[in-house]
């Protein structure tokens, strides 16, 4: 992350039930450049996108 100058990475494990493609929900982890990891529970992809946008706004 440091080499790429990233503030965070959003990752999802597509092998979990209710996550990945062909489903309306997802389960993600947000990895921050300071080493924190935030686990988001299963929620709709719309809710996840709003949550991610809120996190991005915190950096602005």
How does this model look, in words?
The chain is of the alpha+beta class. It has one domain (8-59). Helices cover 25% and strands 35% of the residues. It contains one helix and three strands. A three-stranded antiparallel sheet has the order 1-2-3. A hairpin with a 4-residue loop joins strand 2 (25-32) and strand 3 (37-44). The longest helix has 15 residues, at 45-59. The two termini are 18 Å apart.
Q: Summed up, what is this model?
A:
GO terms for molecular function: catalytic activity. It comes from bioreactor metagenome. The chain is an alpha+beta fold.
Strand residue percentage: 35-45%
Secondary structure tally: strands: 3
Distance between the termini: 18 Å
Helix content: 25-40%
What general form does the structure show? globular
Biggest sheet strand line-up: 1-2-3
Largest sheet: 3 strands, antiparallel
Number of domains: 1
Q: Mind telling me the C-alpha Rg?
A: 12 Å
Structural class: alpha+beta
**Low-confidence segments:** none
What's the helix-strand series?
EEEH
Average per-residue pLDDT, rounded, comes to 93
Contiguous helical run count: 1
GO molecular function: catalytic activity
InterPro entries: CoaB-like_sf, DNA/pantothenate-metab_flavo_C
Protein name: DNA/pantothenate metabolism flavoprotein C-terminal domain-containing protein
Domain DNA/pantothenate metabolism flavoprotein C-terminal: 2-58
